[in-house]
Amino acid sequence: MNLSWCSLLLLVVFAAELALAAVVDDAVQFDPKDIKMTIKSRNGEIIDCVDIYKQPSLNNPLLKDLKHQIMRDIASAVAGQQDGNTRATTVEQEWHKGTRQCPMGSIPILRTNPSVNYLTGSLFPSPLRAANISTWSGAANAAGPRYEFAVAIAANGPYSGAYVQLPVWKPARVHGSEYTATYLLLAGTKDTEFDPTPGVLPPDVTNQIAAGLFAYPEKDTNPRLNIFYTADGGKTLCYNLNCGGFVQTSRAIALGASIVNGASGVDDPVPYLLVSIEKSAAGPWHVLVNDTDLGYYPRAIFPWWMFPESVANLMGGTVLNTWPGGKHTDTVVGNGRRPPRDSKPAIVKGYVAVDLDGHPFPDTLEVIVHTAPNCYDVKFFDQSNGSVGASVAFGGSGGPDCAPRPA
Ligand SMILES: *[C@@H]1O[C@H](CO)[C@@H](O)[C@H](O)[C@H]1NC(C)=O
Ligand SMILES: *[C@@H]1O[C@H](CO)[C@@H](O)[C@H](O)[C@H]1NC(C)=O
Ligand SMILES: *[C@@H]1O[C@H](CO)[C@@H](O)[C@H](O)[C@H]1NC(C)=O
């Protein structure tokens, strides 16, 4: 290696994927006779508790040969669940009022209304695409519907996992048909020759898994817990249980459903959600929130090289701006305050990576992607205050300042 990592870092950066990605929007498939119970929450969400052995992943053709293994995994998860009055999870969702979780042997599935489902009806980012600096800054001049990113990336892998605490904000403004997201995303490459080097991003990020909080006007604007994966670099994005890629084992958390206690005032105490995406050596990728294991993505849903390791971990905020009437909307990212200009911005904190031997280590964030820094920005925080792991401040309030700059 005769180039320093610094100069390599300048050669390759990730850019926002401005070609808007397709979302596979077939609703979650299950037979109504497999519903064991239906719960209506106060905000109008409907949760079906569906037989855990009839979940969408068990019909996925890519997982046909793994079906017995998945059934065994589900059986051992069910055996490990304790019924009774024990606290089901530390994550409060709207539907928990009254009913803490689905009955044993079932999983909660949010009923979505296709006509108002912004996640399936709109397009989602593939925020990572290897490009060079000239490509990236050129793209930032485009007008029209687009994603704006205020994210930081670590590339000191390979990694077998990462965890971070996401701030739970109930956003002050989310324009109709838009969303604002705070998330952790792990990306792998299909380039088997790629030799991870500190700070260098891979040539492609074909395989990705993300988990985080997405807010959009649907029943309420509380943040909603969503996960997604792509196995084709973001051309196809599968949310939650769509596409049958995720094997859900938790009966306490409903993917896509609203979380209760988001902060709204800038001086409110901010609850944090610990999000982890991690795998054992030969095992699948698990997604955990506040230490509740939601389930896993079998490696076979990633036909390109099975996603054995992550080479880039991304975190921060993203907003979909639909550009109505030729104007940038004022949908907020984070808590609407933009670092470094504003005090008290939203902070993603305690980012820790896991190496291939399963050992956590305090990793460093090096690369920033801010596609509209005059309205949504991101800034590294020192690993200060005695807490372990890196932190990054992010966010902004959108608005006319986001107008495209002349090319
Ligand atoms: C996650 O757990 C922490 C610590 O128990 C708690 O303070 C926080 O509110 C939880 N997050 C959510 C979103 O419920
Ligand atoms: C980087 O920019 C140069 C010149 O604009 C272009 O020829 C090249 O294809 C770009 N590389 C990538 C990876 O986009
Ligand atoms: C660290 O503590 C200082 C002073 O209490 C505070 O202003 C700052 O926001 C804290 N940083 C983080 C990352 O929590």
TrEMBL record:
Residues 1-21 form the signal peptide. Residues 139-403 form the Neprosin PEP catalytic domain. It comes from the Eukaryota. Keywords: Signal. InterPro entries: Glutamic_endopeptidase, Neprosin, Neprosin_propep. PANTHER family: OS06G0144400 PROTEIN, PROTEIN, PUTATIVE (DUF239)-RELATED-RELATED. The keyword Signal applies. Transmembrane segments: none annotated. The keyword Signal applies. This is Neprosin PEP catalytic domain-containing protein.
